[in-house]
Amino acid sequence: LGMKKLLIRLPQGLKAVRELGLAQTFWYAVYQVGMRSGFYRRATPTRPYPTLTTRILSPFAIPDRQQMQRVLGSQLEPLIAEANAVAAGQVCLFGGPVVPLVLAPPDATRHWTAYEARPKTWGVEDLKFLWEPARFGWVYGLGRAFAITADEKYPAAFWENFKTFLNANPLNQGPNWSSAQEAALRLLAFIYAAGAFKQSSSSTPAQFECLAGAIAVHAQRILPTLSYARAQNNNHRITEALGLYAAGCTLPDHPLAKGWRKTGWDEINRAFQSQIEPDGTYAQHSMNYHRLMLHAALQAQLFGQAFPQATARRLAAAALWLLAQVDPQSGRVPNLGSNDGANILPLSSGEFGDFRPAGQAAARAFLGQAAFPPGAWDEMALWLRQPMLDSPPLPALPQSPAVHRLGDSHSWATVRAVRFKSRPSQADQLHIDLWWRGENIALDAGTYRYTAAAPWDNALGQTFVHNTVEVGGQNQMRRAGRFLWLDRAQARLFDTRSFSNDAIAAQHDGYQHLGVLHKRSLKKSGNNH
User: Fold this and answer.
1) Which pLDDT tens digit goes with each residue over 296-305?
2) Is 265:247 a contact under the CB 8 Å cutoff?
3) How far, in Å, are 158, 227, 249, 293, 304 from residue 263 at the CA level?
4) Three-class secondary structure of residue 98 per DSSP
5) Quick one: which of 361, 271, 364 has its CA closest to 310?
6) Is the domain of 439 the same as that of 344?
7) Is 500's pLDDT higher than 90?
8) Which of 221, 248, 271, 357 could form a disulfide with 261 if both were Cys (CB 3.0 to 4.6 A apart)?
9) Quick one: which H or E segment has residue 172?
């Protein structure tokens, strides 16, 4: 039976290696060897959290209070309400309703490798509900509220929850240490807190010594398993590289700081250059992960080192790709690809789906001018120390060669047509998104859940869920795992200029094995809508 299963799986495995590439396969094998040999357990030992008497050079500082009040306007009240909820032990996860802020996992008695090897022992159905509060993303709201009010209850709430986390999650024990990416995101939040609460009377030297120690051990957790991030070559690699670089910049006197800075900087530039196509398309084919990637780039830039030209060009193209899909009226975007609800730099008000804060900051950073007129979405620019005196903003509808869009600011549509050079996120070729007066009336369902029981185990990535054609009850591509599609459907565009400047035509070959090529055209008719 074992040999039969091997023979069945072997062709699929070989195809996966061919489509993923030898480099990613090699790094995944390295990671597995490290896990199975016990190397990672030895490299990340359990021990008490250290304290460090060293400088913490956070790049974050409290912006001018009056300027923040002007920018926030009517969004000030929701911000204070959010921070008050955190101070009272409540938090909004993934932009959803308020829930208790829980930082203690069901169990944290074993080394993190034991949980990584057996996820079913974690005590939760979906690990994101365990990880999200432990990312400390809620600290950004506390810092923003403190910047406006100078109310000491906000830094006090951070320090109390920081202590709770350390007590409930011993170093390198439990599921909150199982992912180096989670360690990196938590580290970045700690660095923000160090800057936001530096002048607070609730912040003592002893607390900063604990914080410095926590930043250091989080960086030490990232480095040994960098092979996993390289194997994924996606947001894991970017955020983990950013975590190393940020730790090295923030703790310049630490004996490992120089190595963290160099490894992190080299790694993040390789990641940007390999994951962003020249036309701005991001390797994960996901709107939310595209934003995450830009958030990471903005944080890396904040430490003051200029990106190489090769990286800068890719980031500029990526910013245009995002801006070309922002609805001018609502700030929302098509819900393309995987969406786990992540928002790693929540330095602005507005709903989770409003992409104007990231778009505005990325436009200033990588295109040299604003994308939108002044608004509450400018708060992120204040925290990132971006100049607010801009030349006239970009055109109302920025163009990207990788975004196939028709219409104007009131009524518009996009056609999904891509030639995959990296793993597809969903089987969504020739999906059409339709927008009217700020409403997404024909939409992509997104993701909902990755790891819930069927049918919600990342089921919304399938073809039949999208606004496209399914042939023979089959997906456009062969699903080989929760996050892996093989036999990639490739699309190509047709030149429509000979008969219309307001049309898009494309086809994909995902059903070629059935003798079918799916061709689709979209035409804008008049300006009455």
Assistant:
1) 999 999 999 9
2) no
3) 30, 13, 12, 18, 17
4) strand
5) 271
6) no
7) no
8) 248
9) none
| CA–CA distance, 39 with 225 (Å, rounded to integer) | 10
What is the rounded CA–CA span in Å between residue 47 and residue 305? 34
pLDDT of residue 382: 95
Report, as an integer, the average pLDDT of 117-142.
Answer: 84
H or E element, residue 272: helix 257-275
Task: Tell me if 472 sits within 8 A of 489, measured CB to CB.
Answer: no
Q: Which residues contact 112 (CB under 8 A, 6 or more apart)?
A: 44, 172, 173, 174, 175, 177, 178
Q: Is residue 82 part of a domain?
A: yes
- pTM for this one? 0.94
Q: Please choose, from the candidates 75, 113, 25, 16, the residue with its C-alpha nearest in 3D space to the C-alpha of residue 331.
A: 75
Mean pLDDT of 137-159: 98
Domain containing 180 — which CATH number? 1.50.10.100
Report yes or no on 260 lying in a domain.
no
Confidence of residue 456 (pLDDT cuts 50, 70, 90): confident
| Residue owning tokens 């730099």 | 345
Q: Is there a contact between 186 and 216 (Cβ–Cβ < 8 Å)?
A: no
User: Any idea what the CATH number is for the domain that residue 476 is in?
Assistant: 2.70.98.70
**Based on the domain organization, do 385 and 416 belong to the same domain?**
no
Q: Report the distance separating Cα 49 and Cα 217, nearest Å.
A: 8
Ranking 69-73, 140-144, 171-175, 459-463 by mean pLDDT, the lowest is 459-463
Q: Which residues contact 526 (CB under 8 A, 6 or more apart)?
A: none
User: What pLDDT does 3 receive?
Assistant: 34
pLDDT of residue 4: 41
Q: How many domains does the structure of the chain reveal?
A: 3
Structure tokens belonging to residue 362: 């990325």
Lowest mean pLDDT among 29-38, 85-94, 386-395: 386-395
How confident is the model at residue 350, as a pLDDT?
84
Q: Assign 3-class secondary structure to 100-153.
A: ECCCCCCCCCCEHHHHHHCHHHHCCCCCHHHHHHHCCCCHHHHHHHHHHHCCCH
Partners of residue 503 on adjacent β-strands: 523
DSSP states along 23-72: HHHHHHHHHHHHHHHTHHHHHS---PPP---S----S--PPPHHHHHHHH
Q: At what angle do helices 287-302 and 235-250 cross, to 10 degrees?
A: 20
Provide Rg for the chain, Cα atoms.
23
Phi/psi of residue 271, nearest 5 degrees: -65, -50
Candidates 350, 410, 409, 342; CA nearest to 378 is 350
